Amino acid sequence: MLTRSFAAVATIVAGTILNVSTARAQWSVTILHPAGATMSNSYASGGTQQAGVAEVNDERHASLWSGTAASFVDLHPVGARESAVLGATSTHQVGYAITGGVSRAGMWTGTAASWTDLHADGASRSALWGVRGGQQVGSATIDGVRRAGVWMGTSASFVDLAPAVASDSIAYSTNGTHQIGYAVIAGANRASLWSGSAASWTDLNPVGATQSVGTTASSTQQGGWAAVGGVFQASLWSGDAASWTSLHPAGATISGVFGMNETHQVGYARIGNVDRAGIWSGTAASWEDLSLALPTGFTSSYAQGISDDGTTIYVTGYGFNIGTGREEALLWTRPIPTPGAALVIALGGLVATRRQRDR
Question: What value, to the nearest 5°, has the Cα angle with vertex 281 and ends 348 and 17?
Answer without folding.
Answer: 5
